[in-house]
Amino acid sequence: MGRTPDAAGALARAHEHALTWLSTLPARPVPPAASVAEVIAALGAELPDGPTDPMAVVDLLAGAVERGLTAMPSGRFFGFVIGGTHPAGLAADWLTSAWDQNAGLRQVTPGATAVDDVAEAWVLDLLGLPGGSAVGFVTGGTMANFTCLAAARDAVLARAGWDVGGYGLVGSAGVRVLVGAERHGSVDLVLRYLGLGAPELVPVDQQGRIDPAALRERLGGGDDRPAVVVLQAGNVHSGAFDPFEAAIAAAHEHGAWVHIDGAFGLFAGATPAYRHLVHGYEAADSWATDAHKTLNVPYDCGLAIVRDPTALRAAMSMHGDYLIQDAAGDPFEKVPELSRRARAFTVWAVLRSLGRSGVAELVERLAGHARAFADGIAGIEGAEVLNDVVFTQVCAAFGDDARTLDVVRRMLDDGTAWTSGSVWRERAVLRISVSNWSTTDADVERTLDALRAAVTAS
Ligand SMILES: *Cc1c(COP(=O)(O)O)cnc(C)c1O
């Protein structure tokens, strides 16, 4: 037997390294300073023959990887759709690891289950979604889409007299899945997981919003298979929201299940100032969102929300004689995993810390910064904002595609901020996604200064 490893020492070192990282975020360049090979060289690739004290391991890890980290939690990281970590969520996440609860079973961890129950009710209340819906705490938007669409698939086939759990999909009538042409790629991915194949694409307007008349026409086109319609709250390029009221009405007239992918946009529903964007969304059957985007809890956390808890349970539950199951329902029956981290702790902590007004202010601040970016970019000679900036996403172009790509490259080389490129409506764009609680007006100004310099130099 070796010495007993010292938890206190390792945790103290981790605490110190974490504070150093957080305190250097405002000043450090956003892109990483070291390559994968350089980090491996600093770590050492050899598996040691014997033990190392955890404290030394923490020091080695922090020392070796830090130069290879992107400052994603920086207030000037505007790539992809990446939230920061609100301090209450980060601290709760540390406790989540220390407590190390397997959060699947209600009676085995009453503490985790209680927080799961409370956070579930708060999420529904804040978003104005039907009380009594089930909320599963999953890893992210992709798995939230998966979880909801598993319930959708099984429910629409059950209504058509087919038991997916008993017979699988082979021999069933099949399921039509209709989505707007600008859906997020994770929708296609989860349809593959679910054995449903590629979706049918419905035309969208200039901002990427589904055309409800086209949806209605396709649904009435004579294909009588059970249908699922996937709508979107927050297009990753334009930030646009589908016209929920009309689209949901069309879908429900044809008996379809309506799911909404609102990975970052669903939280528009948490603020009176932006609630009009999700008008009518509460009539859907399921909703997916990320907590690690707009809500700014640490990775990884998504929310799978299903109006009919029995449909979710039917898709996700199992039985094990050795488990201690509760008739009231167990948290694992709302998610694909059996064993699971207690993710509700971080969601509860951020909601408890911000309160109703704090969540609204957070969302309004993100969208306000996006507006400021749009205004700043519009004032740059030769620059053009391509989308209607209704929420947190901005797409800009700087003349032809070659020049836009050059500006994207110059911004990354400069390192003041992270704004990455994409292609939207067949044009190269520079994308700005404002998703971090800590972004300040000064961060926006500094980023615009860097952008002006990049455009001048290109
Ligand atoms: C980010 C995103 C997803 C996927 O979420 P993950 O948390 O990355 O799995 C799905 N849909 C939309 C609209 C997104 O922005």
UniProtKB/TrEMBL annotation:
GO terms for molecular function: aromatic-L-amino-acid decarboxylase activity; pyridoxal phosphate binding; transaminase activity. This is Aspartate aminotransferase family protein. It comes from the Bacteria. Belongs to the group II decarboxylase family. The modification N6-(pyridoxal phosphate)lysine is found at K293. SUPFAM superfamilies: PLP-dependent transferases (SSF53383). Its cofactor is pyridoxal 5'-phosphate. One of its GO terms (biological process) is carboxylic acid metabolic process. InterPro entries: Aromatic_deC, PyrdxlP-dep_de-COase, PyrdxlP-dep_Trfase, PyrdxlP-dep_Trfase_major, PyrdxlP-dep_Trfase_small. Keywords: Aminotransferase, Decarboxylase, Lyase, Pyridoxal phosphate, Transferase.
